[in-house]
Design a protein that fits this description.
This protein is of the alpha+beta class and 197 residues long. Helix content is 56%, strand content 13%. Strands 2-1-3-4 form a four-stranded antiparallel beta sheet, with helices on both faces. The protein is globular, with a radius of gyration of 22 Å.
Length: 197
């Protein structure tokens, strides 16, 4: 007998999230009962879905840059321990460091509360309670700017959810490409059939 799946996010809360997410949302979290990562989503149309997909791609890139920067800083701290570093760089010609240059622009994407989230604190508390403070919510504000709201109870949960978002994005991208290719070949088949007639 198949085990009945326990919903972590009940339909009433999903509806409430939709009311405050203008155009759609994606909520990644851990199901406390199954201990498995899950995602719930709601979109007004396909353009909203693709817009959030694009925002997630940028967010994943920003997270990757943050990790690289953090590792580089740790490496520098170890190699420069006990030394006094005197920098004589010409400020008018700074080093072209893509991580540093991009990080300033992308850091706001990683920050909790990016954009005008507008989601009431009471609703955030509900999501925190239902997900045991382990969630990432991508959504739109009232001006249709993509936003992110998240909470992690530990670094382990943060890394696990980031990896889940990355896997979801890859699967979504491959599925989208597959659908587009299928539609393309279907159109070619239809045109061939018309020519035969």
């Amino acid at each position: 007998m198949k085990k009945k799946r326990t919903l972590t996010i009940p339909p009433s809360v999903r509806h409430e999230i939709s009311e405050w997410c203008y155009g759609g949302f994606l909520l990644f979290y851990f199901n406390e009962a199954s201990k498995q990562p899950e995602v719930v989503a709601d979109f007004e149309d396909s353009s909203a879905a693709f817009s959030l997909q694009s925002f997630i791609e940028t967010w994943l890139y920003a997270v990757k840059l943050e990790k690289i920067k953090s590792l580089e800083e740790e490496e520098d701290d170890l190699s420069n321990a006990g030394k006094i570093i005197v920098s004589e760089l010409d400020e008018s010609n700074p080093i072209d460091d893509p991580i540093t240059n991009n990080n300033q622009e992308l850091s706001s994407i990683i920050e909790d509360g990016q954009g005008n989230t507008e989601i009431p604190d009471q609703l955030v508390e509900k999501i925190n309670f239902l997900t045991q403070s382990r969630f990432i919510l991508f959504h739109f504000d009232s001006t249709e700017i993509p936003c992110i709201k998240f909470n992690f109870s530990s670094n382990k949960d943060a890394l696990a959810l980031q990896e889940f978002v990355k896997c979801w994005y890859s699967a979504f991208f491959e599925n989208s490409v597959g659908l587009m290719l299928n539609n393309y070949f279907d159109d070619d088949t239809d045109e061939g059939s018309e020519d035969e007639l």
